[in-house]
Amino acid sequence: MLGYGVVSASAYLGGHLVYGKQVGVDHTATADKYPKDFVAVLPESELAENTMRRVEAGEVPVLLARKNGTVFAIAHTCSHLGGPLSEGELLDDGTVRCPWHGSVFSLRDGNVVNGPATEPQPKFEVRVRAGQIEVRLQQEADK
Ligand code: FES
């Protein structure tokens, strides 16, 4: 009976942490919704140097940032616990700090520079056509 009780309590706790608190869940795991073809997300003139903002690419939010004249795009929802990266801090070294728990991600490739996040941010290819910033999910071969 004691063993049964321990197993039941452990199962409840594990389910609560993963499904209730979403501990250890990659909050960017919606890759099937990310655009595979370029979609226009913002007029280029509306993204000033050293700024970032949230835009919508199809059904998913994307973080756009302009640093040293280059426009970068990574997933907007932090892979740790879903923080809004556009409300974080754009750092001088080309990284962004999440406002909720301070994870730092590279804008260049979406990799984690500092935790607590362990999963990288999905990265998007960026191009400018007819004055519009366009993004699409980075293709596997380009990573
Ligand atoms: S939600 Fe971004 S670091 Fe926790």
Overview in brief:
By secondary structure, this protein is mostly beta strands. The chain has one helix at residues 2-20, and strands spanning 39-43, 51-57, 60-67, 70-75, 89-90, 95-97, 104-106, 112-114, 123-129, 132-137. FE2/S2 (inorganic) cluster is lined by residues 78, 80-83, 98, 100-103, 116-117.
Q: What does the secondary structure layout of this molecule look like, with pairings?
A:
Layout: H1 2-20, E1 39-43, E2 51-57, E3 60-67, E4 70-75, E5 89-90, E6 95-97, E7 104-106, E8 112-114, E9 123-129, E10 132-137
Bound molecules: FE2/S2 (inorganic) cluster.
InterPro entries: Rieske_2Fe-2S, Rieske_2Fe-2S_sf
Protein name: Rieske domain-containing protein
Organism: Pontibacter saemangeumensis
- The name of the CATH superfamily reads Rieske [2Fe-2S] iron-sulphur domain
Integer tally of domains: 1
- Give me the CATH architecture, please: 3-layer Sandwich
Q: Helical content, roughly?
A: 10-25%
Count of helix runs: 1
Structural category is mainly beta
Gyration radius, in Å: 18 Å
Distance between the amino and carboxyl termini: 52 Å
Task: Please provide the ordered H/E string of secondary-structure elements.
Answer: HEEEEEEEEEE
Residue windows where pLDDT falls under 50 for at least 5 positions? none
Range of strand content: 25-35%
Bound molecules: FE2/S2 (inorganic) cluster
Major beta sheet, strand line-up: 1-10-9-4-3-2
Q: What's the total number of strands? A: 10
Protein name: Rieske domain-containing protein
Keywords: 2Fe-2S, Iron, Iron-sulfur, Metal-binding
Domain Rieske: 39-135
